[in-house]
Amino acid sequence: IGGVFSQAPGGKGANQAVAAARAGGKVAFVGRVGTDALGDEALAGYERDGIDVSRVIRDPEAHSGVALIFVDAKGENSIAVASGANARVSEADVEAARDIIRKASVLLVQLEIPVEAVRKALGIAAEYGVRTILNPAPACPLDDDLLKLVSIITPNETEAELLTGKKVADVRDAEKAAGALIKRGAGAAILTLGSRGSFAYSTEFRGATPCFPAMCVDTTAAGDVFNGALAVA
Questions:
Q1: pLDDT one-digit tens code per residue, 89-120
Q2: Annotated catalytic residue: which of 36, 93, 173, 224?
Q3: Active site residue 72
Q4: Rounded distance, CA 192 to CA 227, Å?
């Protein structure tokens, strides 16, 4: 019992879109929110950050996605999600955004929406030669046909282990897991390793990049910020 309650905007796709916009990117967001107050707040927040929300659908039959996040004294978190409208993002929704995907420099996707909607987005991007980034979170099994549509995959240690069967305890393990993802079809892999930084594996570069020291307050959305910044870079 105890702790302090606070409420903030979130969701993996939303966090990544906002991170990309604040890093200087021109961002369009595809997804769904409810017709509730949380949906109103979400859209107003995206618009304040200059994000194009013309392809965000207001769903009258589902609540906006919500997460309850517990953060411990070291900044580590545990998250329970009620998906709501996020779970209703469809292939048709993605097809309706084909014109935006076609004109993009980068398509960034994650797995808080149905995998088939993600597959559809990656497929459209592949048709037009658009570079793609998949943040495979929350972790779930993915087939090789989907991975072949991904330019860069960005799992953390847990997600990499689920996708490859290889436990990631250090940088050497990260290299093995990244190599396995590329063998399965991904163009490149960047594993985020918490306080150890990241490990990148591609045809141009293979190696670890340390992170700078910081006092950890809350790790929530750290990976999302990484992905948004990566997309812009």
A1: 999 999 999 999 999 999 999 999 999 999 99
A2: 224
A3: no
A4: 10
